[in-house]
Amino acid sequence: MAWMETTLERRRDPKALMPNARSVIAVAMSYAPDTNPMEALSQTSRGLISVYAKGRDYHDVLKGRLKQLAGYLASRSGEDVKVFVDTAPLMEKPLAAAGGIGWQGKHTNLVSREHGSWLFLGAILTAAELPPDTAGRDNCGRCQRCLDVCPTAAFPAPYQLDARRCLAYLSIESKAHIPVEFRKPMGNRVYGCDDCLAVCPWNKFASAAREAKFAARVETDNPPIAELIAIDDRAFRERFAGTPVKRTGRDRIVRNALIAAGNSQDRTMIPLVEERLKDESELVRAMAVWALSQLADPDHFADLRKAYLPREADPDVRNEWEAQSA
């Protein structure tokens, strides 16, 4: 685990989280994969899951390591400590950059000369007075591979991200229907997007993560889309227990899997997709309509519309039927 120390960055106001805090220890832990995740974009029958979510939830793993470090610091200094891993409005990326771990690249994520773009971040606030480190220097130069590769043009300019266009946000955080313009660019991604991280040239210096808990599980290593479409809530919770995927919930993952099915052009999935027209979730039903509009022949789609549209109460799902029938 690589870690550096940095003094408080007052404009981020960590004192709001710990009034007697005098210093911040910024922490980074590598989760670099041993293969290029973008190679799975061509495996259209499988649902692509972001590298960071294939293993044990990093919140649990990194927090455990931070607590060990914080305990050591507290015993040596006699001062209070607090540990944070995405659990408070603490800006880990600028703090890590200020502490010399790396720099914020043009894709807005932290980049390290040693570990590339594959880094989990956390922080320890302490009442101990610690000396500051030298801030990381930007080494992106003229490179803009991360900007050019983005499938939805989510970077309006270097170092700026429009989350409303980011597939990581849309597939994981957004509880709404995926806008039509982003469905094709999603490809077979069902949880997150690693493109801007994967193409960073600094990754060539990164060794695969040594933490075994971050290794992909069989059940989460880009599972078949057909299995994700058919999954119910209980099976979803069992399959993704202990991983970040579980927090997104079954309905959003099935929503994303249906988009992946539509993009696959695999007509053998049509019966599975049709079953989701009866799903309790309007998110799922709406994307089942879209997927069938991509997979089924026009006559079959028209028959399904006649059967399901009259009984559909949700306005968004009804609009999806109408839009795909126009």
Give structural notes.
With 326 residues, this protein is of the alpha+beta class. It folds into 2 domains: 2-126, no CATH class; 161-325, no CATH class. 38% of the residues lie in helices and 11% in strands. The protein has 14 helices and 8 strands. It has helices spanning 58-77, 92-98, 145-149, 167-173, 180-186, 195-198, 225-230, 233-239, 245-248, 250-264, 270-275, 282-295, 298-308, 315-325; strands at 2-7, 23-30, 48-49, 81-84, 103-104, 110-111, 119-126, 189-191. The chain has a 4-stranded antiparallel sheet, with helices on both faces. The protein has a two-stranded parallel ribbon with strand order 3-8. Helix 12 packs parallel to helix 14 (315-325). The chain is elongated, with a radius of gyration of 22 Å. 42% of the residues are buried. The model is unreliable at 1-11 (pLDDT under 50).
* Number of individual domains: 2
Sum up the overall morphology in one term.
Answer: elongated
Mean pLDDT: 91
Largest sheet: 4 strands, antiparallel
Number of extended strands: 8
Widest sheet, order of strands = 1-2-7-4
Distance between the termini: 55 Å
Quickly count the helices: 14
Low-confidence stretches: 1-11
Structural class: alpha+beta
Set out the fold topology.
Elements: E1 2-7, E2 23-30, E3 48-49, H1 58-77, E4 81-84, H2 92-98, E5 103-104, E6 110-111, E7 119-126, H3 145-149, H4 167-173, H5 180-186, E8 189-191, H6 195-198, H7 225-230, H8 233-239, H9 245-248, H10 250-264, H11 270-275, H12 282-295, H13 298-308, H14 315-325
Parallel strand pairs: 3-8
Antiparallel strand pairs: 1-2, 2-7, 4-7, 5-6
Helix pairs in contact: 10-12, 12-14
